[in-house]
Amino acid sequence: MANNSNLGAAKAAKNDEFYTQYADIQKEVNAYLEYNPDTFRDKTVLLPCDDPEWSNFTRFFAQNFERLGLKRLISTSYAVESKKYKDYEPTLFETESPLFDMDKTRIKGKIFELTRDTNQNGRIDIDDLEWHYLEGDGDFRSPEVCALRDQADIIVTNPPFSLFREFVAWIINSNKQFLIIGHQGSIGYNEIFPLIQFNKMWLGMGFAGGAGHFISPYEDHAVAGNHKKGMIRVSGVTWFTNIDHGRRHQPMILMSMKDNIRYGKHKDLKESGYRTYDNYDALEVPYSDAIPSDYEGVMGVPITYLDKYCPDQFEIVGITKTKFKLASKIYPEQIQINKDGTKQRVTKLNDGPVLKINNPPANQVYYMVGNEMYIQLYTRILIRKKHNDQAE
Hints:
Elements: H1 5-13, H2 22-35, E1 44-50, H3 56-63, H4 65-68, E2 72-77, H5 92-95, H6 104-107, E3 110-114, E4 130-133, H7 143-151, E5 154-157, H8 164-172, E6 177-183, H9 193-197, E7 202-203, E8 211-215, H10 219-225, E9 231-235, E10 237-241, H11 257-263, H12 267-272, E11 275-276, E12 283-284, E13 298-302, E14 314-319, E15 334-337, E16 343-346, E17 354-357, E18 366-369, E19 372-376, E20 380-385
Parallel strand pairs: 1-2, 1-5, 5-6, 12-13
Antiparallel strand pairs: 2-3, 3-4, 6-10, 7-10, 8-9, 11-12, 13-20, 14-20, 15-16, 15-18, 17-19, 18-19
């Protein structure tokens, strides 16, 4: 089974052409429509970083133009010669058009627009798309694509993995609504986490099983990621948005701390109870479903909690990353004891939540600082119970 190494390889090679499946787009968009049927009504939707002739984003929004009540659909592509992957054949849609230019098609981006019933068949759909070449290569940072962004109400796309931070800034600076795909690992970025903390961005409905299956032209990654040629499985990808959906307002049903220890399904909590971090003034909660309903202080929960986060129930107060400067303690150099007993000098404890332990753990890396023993946990989101007078 593939894991994030596929994504890492893509980022390293700047291979960013992973095409989203139609069914995944449909499922995600429908979640917003269930909460608010007018989410897209009378709106201009921009699909940048796209390849309109192949993209399921363009296909979905064009085919559902009337159902969504769109005012205008704009989709832009990136020129072939500006991409890492250059194995390209023009489609019949392009070559049969009087606008086709063999020289321009490799160095110019293209813009597709849908606003009206061009073939006069009584409906507006994908057959009514109109297109022309852009002046530049279609880079989302170019002045002409920035101008299109400023005309749009909602931006929807699967942006380049290698440019995710820059793309998010490009959207946030324009104060637009958006629905984009990214990796959960980006949650801890300096540029991303504050947006989540202050409810300027949140997670969408997500992909089934916490992994996306994308169509990819990179056979070396695609075949490794999925036994079906041309597909790649990427763990941990999700949808990021600032558009409201119903799950965001569904509080979790939780038990008290006492009942979690007594009746909960997690064996380690039953045996050891809850512990506090050595370097954060917070309670370690290793499972989202074990958040105690009666704890008033700060709690550290897994990043996957954000899938269930309800801003009416809890507030996000931070994240256990050193760069956010919330740690209450800085450790000197440590001795890391690996699973095989080998040792090395490190400074790893200062980037993550730490628990102090009394005995060496079985089959687990641990750290020594003098005579004290510690283990380090994965990154935690720090949350605190919200009271009625704090509700948004």
